[in-house]
Structures are given as structure tokens and as C-alpha cells.
Specification:
3-stranded antiparallel beta sheet, disordered C terminus, about 10% helix, about 50% strand
Length: about 525
């Protein structure tokens, strides 16, 4: 094992957040608009009956990852992908001394570090609307999430900078830099630190119905009910964390010993691994380490309601076929939903360690001889005066509250706003990013264009774009970084292949509509 295993794990966890090879728990690109159909139900299930399609089926995949600490220029990231000889290199002046790093980072920042890395693949989804009043749907979905919330950035800084007494500057001359390390004289603290990792699959059914429709007012109510199965989870929760670093031996600072003045919290895990099985055998990965099993079972619900201000109160009349239903012609809509309200319970092979200690000392060099999961936990528990308890725990899904608003200028031009605020319902959990999104869009039967402007975690502004051509939708919330502009803190990409059956369009009527999509007088300009 690596002698700096603990610090390496922390670094890898955050660095991967800037990689384009990782994906996020749910992309909201493609989840709104009148052609969203069954995908829109994942953001607000009441959208099944308000959608402009009466049936659909398809699949979609969202690719994304963001953090607020590690970054590189977007142009350099693209060079490293297409030019294997290119090496990223960044010089930072740290207390008057130049240091060269392979990755840029926010040195000296006291802002807590956050990151969200994951995967969300809707393998298959579909919906069907009955006479415009009721709709049912289904989805099969695979997800994974790595969430870091309020992590002390000073720990990441130490991981990057280190505390070596000597290092060589560009001209090769050694320099004594002990004097510029002031970290040992400072006390650090953190509150409500959470790290959550979980991979799971969901199978769900959706239902939406019109509960009120009179004059120009309409209310739709919807729900998704889902079961969840997980292959494993790891979680760390710390309500209080006070720590410091002390002066080491004659070579200056010792970055291997961490002194915790106060530590309260816990760590829980249920892994598809043999806890006493060696990671490697004769230097090679041990194939007997992996266990193929389902470790946790649970479920959850999504509940949503949508109020629609209709453009007119004209009734449909008597319709014989579902395809004859006209799209809902509205001025504006307001929706509210609670999504991913639920949890997964891990029982078999689940283990929990609870911490409430003062004046603890953790020497990371002890991880040199770690070869199994239990040996790793023995080092941690000995430092924090705890022990492993074989008991189950609940791992919360990425529960969030969402508000959606959509305004229609006419049948082709709209503007949409979405707010997503994550909430924690269990001690151990995974979370999604907080997002505020404003997106103008153009819609037609075969072509859509959307330009979302997104604020992620209330501190990073992104400009994106989404395009739909017939059955294929491709989009991103971060177009500038994707084309090599600005500092790269993360990327995302959304791809969907979905077959829509639009309201007011019957397959048997090839050259004319069953009904005109909008029954509006000329005074409305439609």
C-alpha cells in the first residue's frame, strides 16, 4: 500500500471531480420543456400530463462533474487529451517561493471544498397519456454518486504542498523553506463535514392526473414510486472537527501526523469486498477481493404538483383517440416537487464506527502496512478510540426540493427557470449540487434549442446549450469550458435518444393534423 494512503485517497477523490470521464447523479438538461415526456417526470412527475407528448420511450445519459477547489485552464485540458507529449505545469508563488504543480488549486482559500461526481443512466423510460386526464410511466435507472460537502480545504492544501524541509527550485539550487510553512501555528476546524459514496439501481412507476381544470386554471398532481438496490456505500459524517499540525523533527514540519483536538461523527460502510481479504497477492490485484452481491435495499418517492395558467378555457370536446388530444396551450406554469425522498438500508456486512474523542493523534505512515479493509479501519479506530460495530445503517438518496417556472411567449418561444435545493434526511447520505437555472428556448415538432444559464452551488456561473433534432438530444450546462474557454472546474454532457408521439398528431393522418394544436384567436398572435 502507498505510505500516504489516507492523503492520497483524499486527493484522488477531489481531483477526479475535474475529469471529463465522470458523470453526475442527475442532469436537468432535457428534463423540462414540452417534449421532455418521461424524462421530465424525474424532475416533476406531474409533468406527464402537462407534456406535449401523449406517449414516448427512450433512454438518456447525463455526464457531469464539478468541484470548487481543483482546476486547470480549459485549453490545457484539451491539449493534454489530443497531444500526449503536452504536460500540464503550473507555478504558484507560496510565501515568496515558486512551486510547480501538475494541477492548479485555490491555495490559501478558507472556503470549504465541495465536489459531486457520479453516474446517472436511464436505461429505459416511457409514458402514456389517457385522454389527456391521466398518464402512467415507468423507468429503469442506474446511478452512482460521490459527494463531498464542506470538506476542510486546508487538508487538501497540505496534500498538495506537503511539508518537506528542502526542495529544488527551477535552477536546481536547494532552498530551505521551513520558515514559510505557517500551517503548524494555526488551528483548523470544520462543521457538518459529509462524504457519501453509493452506487444503486432504481425501478419505478409513475402516475399523473389532472385534479382541477376550470376556466383558465389547471392543476396536475404526480408521483413516482421506486425500489432501489445498491451494491455498496461508504459514508463519513462529522459534526465537529478541530485539528492542527505540530512541528516535527529536525527536518522541519511533519505532514504525516495529524492532531485532532476534537472529533465527533462516524463512518459507515457496506462494500462488495472481503474485509479481511488482501488487496494484492504477489504484487497483483487479488481477484478474490470482489464479491458480486446486492448489499442494500430501499426505495423512495418523487411527488410533484403543477399549476398552469391556460391561454383560453376552450374544451376539447369528444375525442375518440389519444393522439387527438391538443397540447396544453398555456401562458405560464409553476411547479413544485420533492425528488428522491427515500433511503437504502444496508444490513448484511454493514459496519459502523462512531467517534467522539479529544486529543487524538493520527499518523498516516501507519497506512504503509495496510493490506485489508479491516486493517485500514484498525488504524483509524485506534487513533480515534473507537471500534467497529457490525450493525446496519440507512443511506439517504439525494433528496432535493425543486421549483420550476415556465413562461410561453407563443407556441415556439419560451423561458424556463428551475431551482434545486438539496436536503439531508439521514445522517449518512449522498447529495446533488444546488442549482439555479434560467433558460430561454425555441421549440418545434422536430427541432428544439435551449440556452441554459446555471448557477451551481450559488457560486459558479455556467453558460450551456441543448439541441434536439427529431429523436436525438445533446446538451451541456457548461458550453464555454467544453469548447476550451475559461478555467475548468468540471464538465457535463447530456445525451438522449427518445421517440415522442406528439399530441395533436396521429400516425394514420399523414398529411393533416387530427386537431389543430392550439385553438387560439388571432388577438393572441398565434
Amino acid at each position: 500500500m502507498n505510505g500516504k494512503l489516507l492523503k492520497s485517497l483524499l486527493m484522488v477523490l477531489m481531483i477526479t471531480c475535474t475529469s471529463i470521464d465522470y458523470v453526475k447523479s442527475q442532469s436537468i438538461v432535457g428534463a423540462y420543456g414540452n417534449h421532455a415526456g418521461s424524462h421530465g417526470a424525474l424532475l416533476n412527475p406531474s409533468s406527464l400530463t402537462t407534456s406535449g407528448v401523449y406517449a414516448d420511450f427512450g433512454l438518456n445519459l447525463g455526464l457531469s462533474a464539478y468541484n470548487n477547489y481543483f482546476h486547470v485552464p480549459s485549453a490545457d485540458a484539451f491539449k493534454s487529451v489530443f497531444d500526449k507529449s503536452f504536460k500540464m505545469s503550473y507555478t504558484k508563488i507560496i510565501n515568496g517561493f515558486p512551486r510547480v504543480f501538475d494541477l492548479d488549486f485555490n491555495y490559501g482559500s478558507s472556503k470549504r471544498a465541495t465536489a459531486n461526481v457520479g453516474a446517472d443512466a436511464v436505461v429505459l423510460s416511457g409514458m402514456y397519456n389517457f385522454r389527456g386526464r391521466h398518464a402512467v410511466g415507468f423507468f429503469a435507472r442506474t446511478r452512482a454518486n460521490v459527494d463531498v460537502h464542506k470538506f476542510p480545504s486546508e487538508i487538501l492544501e497540505v496534500c498538495m504542498v506537503g511539508f518537506d524541509h528542502n526542495y529544488r527550485i527551477n535552477d536546481g539550487d536547494p532552498a530551505d523553506t521551513t520558515v514559510y510553512y505557517t500551517q503548524y501555528a494555526r488551528n483548523y476546524s470544520g462543521k457538518n463535514v459529509n462524504v457519501g459514496i453509493m452506487a444503486w439501481s432504481e425501478f419505478g412507476l409513475s402516475y399523473s392526473t389532472v385534479v382541477f381544470n376550470r376556466f383558465r386554471h389547471r392543476v396536475d398532481l404526480g408521483v413516482n414510486a421506486k425500489v432501489a438496490m445498491s451494491v455498496g456505500a461508504v459514508a463519513l459524517s462529522s459534526k465537529k472537527l478541530d485539528y492542527h499540525l505540530e512541528l516535527g523533527d529536525s527536518i522541519g514540519m511533519n505532514d504525516s501526523v495529524w492532531f485532532f483536538d476534537r472529533m465527533t461523527g462516524g463512518m459507515a460502510y457496506s462494500l462488495p469486498l472481503g474485509y479481511d481479504t488482501y488487496f494484492t497477492v504477489d504484487g497483483d490485484f487479488n481477484d478474490d477481493l470482489i464479491k458480486n452481491r446486492i448489499a442494500g435495499f430501499g426505495g423512495g418517492i418523487d411527488v410533484g404538483v403543477t399549476y398552469t395558467r391556460l391561454r383560453n378555457s376552450r374544451a376539447e370536446g369528444r375525442l375518440k383517440r389519444n393522439c387527438e388530444i391538443s397540447p396544453v396551450d398555456y401562458i405560464w406554469r409553476l411547479g413544485f416537487s420533492v425528488i428522491d425522498l427515500g433511503a437504502v438500508y444496508f444490513g448484511n456486512d454493514a459496519e459502523v464506527s462512531e467517534y467522539d474523542t479529544k486529543n487524538a493523534e493520527l499518523n498516516t505512515e501507519r497506512f504503509n502496512d495496510v493490506n485489508t479493509v479491516h486493517e485500514f479501519m484498525d488504524v483509524v479506530n485506534e487513533a480515534f478510540d473507537s471500534e467497529i460495530e457490525r450493525k446496519g445503517f440507512w443511506m439517504g438518496l439525494p433528496t432535493s426540493l425543486s421549483l420550476q417556472f415556465d413562461y410561453s411567449f407563443n407556441r415556439h418561444f419560451f423561458v424556463n427557470a428551475v431551482v434545486i435545493q438539496p436536503v439531508a434526511i439521514t445522517k449518512y447520505h449522498v447529495m446533488r449540487d444546488a442549482q439555479m437555472l434560467l433558460s430561454p428556448r425555441f421549440e418545434s415538432q422536430w427541432f428544439d434549442v435551449t440556452m441554459p444559464v446555471t448557477v451551481v452551488n450559488y457560486n459558479r456561473l455556467l453558460l450551456g446549450a441543448s439541441f434536439r433534432a427529431a429523436f436525438l438530444t445533446v446538451g451541456t450546462q457548461n458550453l464555454l469550458n467544453l469548447i476550451g474557454v475559461g478555467e475548468l472546474y468540471g464538465l457535463d454532457l447530456y445525451v438522449s435518444l427518445k421517440f415522442n408521439f406528439n399530441k395533436g398528431k396521429c400516425l394514420t393522418d399523414r398529411y393533416e393534423d387530427c386537431l389543430k394544436p392550439y385553438h387560439v384567436s388571432k388577438k393572441h398572435g398565434r
